[in-house]
Amino acid sequence: MKVTVFDYGAGNLHSLLKAIAGDGCRVDVESDPARAVSTDVLVLPGVGAFGHAAARLAPGRDALRAALGAGLPCLGICLGMQLLFDASDEGAGLGLGVLRGRVRRLEGGRVPQIGWNTVDLARDPLLAAAPVPIAYYANGYVCHPDDASCVGAWSEHEGTRFPALVRAGNTVGVQFHPEKSSRAGVELIRTFLREACS
Q: Is 177 designated active site?
């Protein structure tokens, strides 16, 4: 199975690539968004800022939207999850609009949220198969979906509740970093890949 990680050109992907590798997966890193859809699974990583990443996605935005709409499995992590939505207060540019809604600044005394937090009210089958009761976060923005039925789990930061996992068909977004969330997080990635393969 070919897994393609889209590279926004914004940071180190080492821990993510290490978490994906194995189980018969071939991992490619691609910086051309139009070419990134020629894969079995697409991963949008959680490194960078929305405006810069949206600009990097823009030349292939229509191709990406079409591929995800046609069922290409996709895992969006942190910023990658936010790019699944329409737009963000963090920066200019359009997200993919796979999920309707906007990304807004996280409310709370300590922002960004950096560290471990619980993943609660999990009802998505992915978390049933690979539970992640606590996960590593590094985010100052969170998603506000127009329709909360896409939310498969929640987290809370200093009284502010926000989506920890969202899903639209074969597209899953997680606000936390599973590749940095110990064994449970890596198992979630592997479970997603097995689900995508089947």
A: yes
